[in-house]
Amino acid sequence: xxxxxxxxxxxxxxxxxxxxxxxxxxxxxxxxxxxxxxxxxxxxxxxxxxxxxxxxxxxxxxxxxxxxxxxxxxxxxxxxxxxxxxxxxxxxxxxxxxxxxxxxxxxxxxxxxxxxxxxxxxxxxxxxxxxxxxxxxxxxxxxxxxxxxxxxx
Length: 153
What we know:
The protein is of the alpha+beta class and about 150 residues long. The protein is about 25% helix and about 30% strand. Strand 5 (about 105-110) and strand 6 form a beta hairpin.
């Protein structure tokens, strides 16, 4: 019995140190990610295995402006998540603007008329190896209210 426990412990330690897929949070590093059917924000896709951290997320839509600051946790490689967003955002009529990889974090920026979206992909915890932050803000009002000073009303 004791020998079995020692062997299992060595096996687990060996996998962890060698970067075994079981501990990296990714069973197939080259696999393409799919999107959840109904994400919290319709035009902001979310990979299927990522969960919204409701206690650390917020959003507001007034009809003329939007603000989204969502945090998700999941288990896919940062590069797989990046590939997912480059395809899924363009499919939802977002224009890819830039990509930055610095100190382990990957930032992607997308634009729509009057809106900007920043996707930040970084390392998470042991249970949720990948942290995903979606930030969207309105840079120009969608349907600005009529200016009463011009009409005299």
